Amino acid sequence: MNPELHPLFVEALHLSEGLQPTPSAIQRVGKATSTEAATWAFTQWELRRRGAVKFARASEMLFTTDGLAMASSEAVARFHAGLFPEGVEVADLTCGIGADLIALAERGMVVGLDQIPDHANAALWNLRAHDLGGLVYVADSLVWAAHEKPKYVFVDPARRKGSQRTLNPESFSPSLSALRPILDRANRWVMKLSPMLPDDFLGSISADLIFVSHEGECKEALLVGPSENPVTKAIHIESGEELLGETSAPRTEEPRGFLWELDPAAVRAHAQGAFRVPQLADAIGYLTSDSPPDSPWITGYRVLWQGAFREKVISTELRRNQWKPTAVKTKYVEVNPEKTFKALRQSSGSPVQVVVYSHGKALRALIVERVLPA
Ligand SMILES: C[S@@+](CC[C@H](N)C(=O)[O-])C[C@H]1O[C@@H](n2cnc3c(N)ncnc32)[C@H](O)[C@@H]1O
To answer: pLDDT exceeding 90 applies to what percent of the chain?
Structure first.
């Protein structure tokens, strides 16, 4: 396969660069090329604009709408690639438009497969746009892998059907049971899955489990196999810091001077015990300490007020201290944060946040202000 574009499409891309997609501009480019090429080219520029959030060289790449939505961002893809030994040939069984394939190709030989021709075409184009080698096939990777028996395998099964997402592993494409024999033959395999899959399911696969934090969100659960003694970890992409999961923290009823809000991937990995600081009552993901946090895993807040959750009392405190709430956060309690936010609204004051949590049956609240990292 060559990453070739029909000359009319190349010309349309060139002519439409920097233009607003107005009917007259599309018509003008269409007259010089073809209507199909013009429509495609304006769509590419829109996708390239959106792709800039994920890719440094988005303006040289090709995308499909679905392919871009499903693509790993560059920094996360590099982390995936680093889970393989350098220099080995890795088969990416679900390469999409090639985000992971590019990162893998930066470290060694790659074979990418996708059953959608537009995805495979874009993946090959995108490899070459990054001056990288590698093969890409339009194929059902299950059929290909049964024959080729790859030893290093990356797979990011599709979890969408149209606009719907599924959490049923048997509805993924490819399904997990169909992948099993391919993974069992591999020296190393890495599978990207939704972090929303239940612990029971993720733990039932004998593999290391890594929850990935990027841009403040828990983006994915990665399974890395084979593993004789599986561990659970969280990785913070921006800092490169790792946390060991499955560590519990002691609890305290009393909030101390600072509230520590844990990164969602650390919470998902059950790593709240990693900081040797107690959890605040039943508020999973909130720790409390006498000192501000100094960790990329934690957002810190100074505790300004604490008490029972009563909107009237909190309102009075806010007004008296000239504090203006910018958000109401609730953790595992049946309180509607939008409704409470409206009830507590103040027109001016210094910015604070209200946190509602539970201690047994009691609802408690804090007024906190953000402390910036030193
Ligand atoms: C989640 S996307 C992969 C995104 C990719 N990791 C990236 O970062 O760009 C999944 C891709 O797998 C492809 N796919 C699903 N089942 C497949 C199969 N049996 N063989 C080949 N490709 C398949 C889909 O067409 C889709 O492009």
So the answer is: 90
- For the entire predicted model, the pTM comes to 0.92
CATH of the domain at 141: 3.40.50.150
**Pick from 224, 222, 263, 228: which is nearest to 243 by CA?**
263
Q: Report DSSP letters for 287-323, one per residue.
A: EEESS---STTEEEEEEEEEEE--HHHHHHHHHHHTE
> Under a CB-based contact definition with an 8 Å cutoff, are residues 172 and 158 in contact?
yes
Nearest CA among 173, 111, 119 for reference residue 148: 111
**Within this chain, do residues 337 and 293 fall inside the same structural domain, yes or no?**
yes
Answer whether 70 contacts ligand 1 (Cβ < 6 A).
yes
**Cα angle: 48, vertex 53, 58; to 5 degrees:** 35
Q: Which pLDDT tens digit goes with each residue over 277-310?
A: 999 999 999 999 999 999 999 999 999 999 999 9
Decide: 113 in ligand 1 pocket, CB within 6 A.
yes
134 lines ligand 1 (CB under 6 A): no
> Among 176, 201, 230, where does a domain finish?
230
- The residue written with tokens 């009075």 in the block is 316
pLDDT at position 206 is 87
Same domain, 167 and 296: no
In a domain, 95, yes or no: yes
Q: What is the CA radius of gyration of the chain?
A: 25
Whether 100 lines ligand 1, by a CB cut-off of 6 Å, is: yes
Count other C-beta atoms under 10 Å from residue 312's C-beta: 9
Please give the residue range of the domain that contains residue 289.
251-371
Q: Which amino acid residue places its CA nearest to atom 27 of ligand 1?
A: 96
Ligand 1 pocket: which of 114, 165, 220 to mutate (most atoms within 8 A of CB): 114
Residue 206 shares a structural domain with residue 344:
no
Q: How many residues does the chain have?
A: 374
Domains of the chain: total: 3
Same domain? For 135 and 92 the reply is: yes
Report whether residue 174 contacts ligand 1, using a CB cutoff of 6 Å: yes
CA of 203 from ligand 1 middle (Å) equals 24
Model confidence pLDDT, tens digit, residues 41-61: 999 999 999 999 999 999 999
In a domain, 236, yes or no: no
| CA gap 141, 120 in Å, rounded | 12
